[in-house]
């Protein structure tokens, strides 16, 4: 018989959030694949667990090479436990490649449900939770980041992102540029930890706040785009949207047409706003 791959959720901050089954699986697994073996050691010590199985590293740098080894163990009947530094494996962490390989080999895959920064931030944000999409980390390069944001500028669902603290100010500024400074958002910092903080407000205000420097693990939740149809959009906002599209490479005519459709307005109204801004030297 083949073995079983167990994806185990680990605490995102407070060790007391560890599910009871996690300790059982850590103690009984034949192999534990950990994103960081040092963090795993701290986790087992905190839970009072002594693993009986072999511990191996499984992170972005060796994921491709180690996956076949783990699959071989699983096909041979081993119970392999996969843990990452925090949260659920496969969610912006190693795991997807191994799960896909197990599915291909008809190896059973199950999970120990645990904490998730995505769902925790979403629930605390105060933004709509009925429909959402997780976008992970944005590209580090400014141009690529803007392009990715433009792809979801009209996404109606609530958006959830991970971000590094030293890039947060640039990311929020880019979001304010693409989504609009008044789009609501929440920055969730150090979730479940001692200095947990949820900062809510318009993207423009959050970008200014983040410019002073922010520390810790960050999850950003952004309100989805408003429904299409006639909107109460200021002339300044119409001009801003046209400029964003022009900076992305669109010709002005096409940019005006696209913004008119987005706002549910006649093209002439958007055109007049752009001409007025030009004449005013804006």
TrEMBL record:
Top EC class of this enzyme: transferase
Location of this chain's protein in the cell: Cytoplasm
GO BP terms, alphabetized: methylation
An MF annotation (GO) of this entry: methyltransferase activity
Occurrences of domain Tetrapyrrole methylase (ranges): 4-207
Catalyses which reaction(s): cytidine(1402) in 16S rRNA + S-adenosyl-L-methionine = 2'-O-methylcytidine(1402) in 16S rRNA + S-adenosyl-L-homocysteine + H(+)
SUPFAM superfamilies: Tetrapyrrole methylase
Domain of life: Bacteria
CDD domains the UniProt entry points to: RsmI
Enzyme Commission identifier(s): 2.1.1.198
Principal location listed in the UniProt entry: cytoplasm
Keywords linked to the UniProt accession: Cytoplasm, Methyltransferase, rRNA processing, S-adenosyl-L-methionine, Transferase
InterPro entries linked to this entry: 4pyrrol_Mease, 4pyrrol_Methylase_sf, 4pyrrole_Mease_sub1, 4pyrrole_Mease_sub2, rRNA_ssu_MeTfrase_I
Stated role: Catalyzes the 2'-O-methylation of the ribose of cytidine 1402 (C1402) in 16S rRNA.
Membership in a protein family: Belongs to the methyltransferase superfamily. RsmI family.
Protein name in UniProt: Ribosomal RNA small subunit methyltransferase I
Gene: rsmI
């Amino acid at each position: 018989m083949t073995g079983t791959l167990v994806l185990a959720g680990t605490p995102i901050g407070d060790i007391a959030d560890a599910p009871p089954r996690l300790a059982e699986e850590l103690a009984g697994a034949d192999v534990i694949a950990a994103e960081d073996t040092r963090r795993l050691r701290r986790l087992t010590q905190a839970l009072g667990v002594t693993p009986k199985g072999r511990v191996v590293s499984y992170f972005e740098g060796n994921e491709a090479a180690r996956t076949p080894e783990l699959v071989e163990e699983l096909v041979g009947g081993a119970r392999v436990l996969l843990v990452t530094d925090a949260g659920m494996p496969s969610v912006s962490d190693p795991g997807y490649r191994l799960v896909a390989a197990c599915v291909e080999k008809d190896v059973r895959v199950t999970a120990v449900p645990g904490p998730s920064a995505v769902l925790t931030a979403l629930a605390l944000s105060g933004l709509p939770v009925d429909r959402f999409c997780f976008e992970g980390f944005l590209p580090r390069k400014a141009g690529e980041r803007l392009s990715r944001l433009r792809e979801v500028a009209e996404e109606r669902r609530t958006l959830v992102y991970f971000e590094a603290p030293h890039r947060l100010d640039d990311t929020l500024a880019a979001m304010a540029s693409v989504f609009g400074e008044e789009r609501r958002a929440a920055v969730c910092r150090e979730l479940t930890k001692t200095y947990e903080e949820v900062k809510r407000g318009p993207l423009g205000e959050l970008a200014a706040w983040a410019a002073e420097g922010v520390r810790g693990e960050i999850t950003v939740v952004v309100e989805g785009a408003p429904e299409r149809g006639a909107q109460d959009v200021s002339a300044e906002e119409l001009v801003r949207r046209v400029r964003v599209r022009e900076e992305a490479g669109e010709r002005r005519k096409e940019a005006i047409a696209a913004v008119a459709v987005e706002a549910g307005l006649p093209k002439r109204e958007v055109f007049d706003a752009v001409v007025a801004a030009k004449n005013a030297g804006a």
